[in-house]
């Protein structure tokens, strides 16, 4: 029968025909190259490094980082709301800016600092990194911190209003209620919480400023007669005065005054706490209540606590506030004289610092800056 036979060459030799393999098409998968151990080690190392860096970004560390915070023009608006609103008196516009300054911080309860944030803080000239326990007690909650900051801000606003109105010549009557006595003072055990101070050595005390002015004329260590209203009755209490840090006499009582303000002042600022904006609020009130354009187009920043007598006090974070002021366009900065040791060597280029101790000095400073006669204003020196 018929059968298949192999092709025969012309020479008669057997020829073996091998089928040629076609080139791979685009759809044909090639066998991958074998991965070397070294490549595996490198890949694992890179992955581990990436994971470690990602962890460092969010890993909380026991440090507090304070950096320049936002500034606010007390003569202007924030989110469409004026920072200072006044009724009961004529107000005037200003062409300048008076900026309160702030500090932004991490490291407190609920807002931990990261390792990256701490590293950036160490590298920044105007950021301060400190162990967290130096700023926040370990048992303090964020709610407690917020409540304290809010209370200090409210008190600061009231002090600023009283100081500003007094500086402008308004009478600001006050009811001087005793909140407690200083431990170890002669008033302890004699003056009671809730007593209302009405006179000193027979002279009526209509307001807090009047009490301070009378005490300024008393020799520390001498005895004064404090008249208080207790349970509806006038009671005379002899008190041996002590000495304040400034050398003036003090009676050794804490006072929670209730003021009868002749002008209604409302300060609206919900996202900032603490007492350090008091001086700038007071200057803003003065600027709005006077026809003079004190700032006169200048951008002036500043800081400082203030009491009802107009005394400007020290604050924290002065280096960060200087940097924030310069960043936001200020060319002048009002700094408490008691912060001068921290100011020297940390003033950004292009920012001129004026030291102030009282609201009256601060008012004169912004007037001089606005009028272009500020060359001789005092500054912080080494």
Concise summary:
The protein has 382 residues and is of the alpha+beta class. The chain is 27% helix and 26% strand. It has two domains: 63-169 and 262-371, Ribosomal Protein S5, domain 2 (2-Layer Sandwich), CATH 3.30.230; 174-259, Pdz3 Domain (Roll), CATH 2.30.42.
Defining key terms:
Ribosomal Protein S5, domain 2, six-stranded antiparallel β-sheet, six-stranded mixed β-sheet, disordered N terminus, 382 residues, Pdz3 Domain, 2 domains, alpha+beta, globular, 8 helices
List the helices and strands and how they pair.
Elements: H1 37-58, E1 60-61, E2 63-73, E3 77-78, E4 81-82, E5 84-87, E6 97-106, E7 113-114, H2 115-123, E8 128-131, H3 142-167, E9 174-181, E10 196-200, E11 203-204, H4 208-216, E12 223-230, E13 233-240, E14 242-243, E15 249-250, E16 253-259, E17 264-267, H5 278-289, E18 299-302, E19 305-306, E20 312-313, H6 318-327, E21 332-336, H7 340-343, E22 352-356, H8 359-371
Helix pairs in contact: 3-5
Structure description:
With 382 residues, this protein is of the alpha+beta class. It folds into two domains: 63-169 and 262-371, Ribosomal Protein S5, domain 2, CATH 3.30.230; 174-259, Pdz3 Domain (Roll), CATH 2.30.42. Helix content is 27%, strand content 26%. The protein contains eight helices and 22 strands. It has helices at 37-58, 115-123, 142-167, 208-216, 278-289, 318-327, 340-343, 359-371, and strands at residues 60-61, 63-73, 77-78, 81-82, 84-87, 97-106, 113-114, 128-131, 174-181, 196-200, 203-204, 223-230, 233-240, 242-243, 249-250, 253-259, 264-267, 299-302, 305-306, 312-313, 332-336, 352-356. The strands form seven sheets. It has a six-stranded mixed β-sheet with strand order 8-2-6-18-21-22. Strands 9, 10, 11, 12, 13 and 16 form a six-stranded antiparallel β-sheet that branches. Strand 14 (242-243) and strand 15 (249-250) form a beta hairpin. Helix 3 (142-167) packs parallel to helix 5 (278-289). The relative contact order is 0.15. Mean pLDDT is 86; it is low at 1-21.
């Amino acid at each position: 029968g018929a059968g298949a036979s192999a092709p025969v060459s012309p020479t008669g030799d057997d020829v073996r025909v091998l089928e040629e393999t076609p080139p791979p098409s685009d759809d044909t998968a090639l066998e991958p190259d074998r991965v070397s151990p070294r490549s595996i080690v490198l890949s694992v190392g890179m992955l581990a490094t990436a994971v470690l860096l990602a962890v460092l970004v969010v890993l909380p560390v026991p440090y507090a980082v304070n950096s320049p915070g936002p500034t606010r023009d007390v003569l202007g608006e924030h989110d469409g709301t004026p920072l200072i609103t006044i009724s009961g008196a004529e107000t005037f516009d200003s062409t300048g800016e008076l900026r309160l300054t702030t500090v932004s911080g991490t490291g407190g309860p609920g807002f931990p600092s990261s390792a990256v944030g701490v590293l950036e803080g160490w590298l920044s000239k105007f950021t301060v990194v400190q162990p967290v326990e130096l700023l926040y007690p370990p048992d303090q909650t964020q709610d407690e911190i917020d409540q304290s900051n809010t209370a200090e801000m409210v008190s600061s606003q009231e002090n600023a209003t009283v100081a500003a109105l007094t500086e402008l010549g308004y009478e600001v009557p006050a009811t001087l209620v005793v909140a407690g006595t200083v431990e170890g003072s002669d008033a302890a055990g004699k003056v009671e919480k809730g007593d209302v101070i009405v006179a000193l050595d027979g002279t009526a005390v209509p307001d807090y400023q009047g009490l301070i002015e009378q005490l300024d004329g008393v020799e520390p260590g001498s005895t004064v007669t404090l008249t208080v209203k207790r349970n509806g009755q006038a009671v005379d209490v002899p008190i041996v005065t002590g000495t304040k840090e400034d050398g003036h006499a003090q009676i050794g009582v804490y006072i929670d005054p209730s003021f009868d303000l002749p002008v209604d002042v409302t300060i609206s600022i919900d996202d900032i706490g603490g007492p350090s904006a008091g001086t700038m609020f007071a200057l803003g009130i003065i600027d709005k209540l006077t026809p003079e354009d004190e700032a006169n187009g200048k951008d002036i920043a500043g800081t400082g606590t203030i009491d009802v007598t107009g005394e400007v006090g020290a604050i924290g974070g002065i280096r960060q506030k200087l940097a924030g002021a310069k960043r936001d366009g200020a060319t002048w900065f009002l700094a408490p004289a008691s912060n001068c040791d921290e100011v020297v060597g940390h003033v950004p280029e292009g920012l001129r610092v004026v030291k102030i101790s009282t609201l009256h000095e601060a008012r004169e400073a912004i007037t001089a800056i606005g009028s272009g006669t500020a060359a001789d204003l005092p500054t912080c020196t080494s």
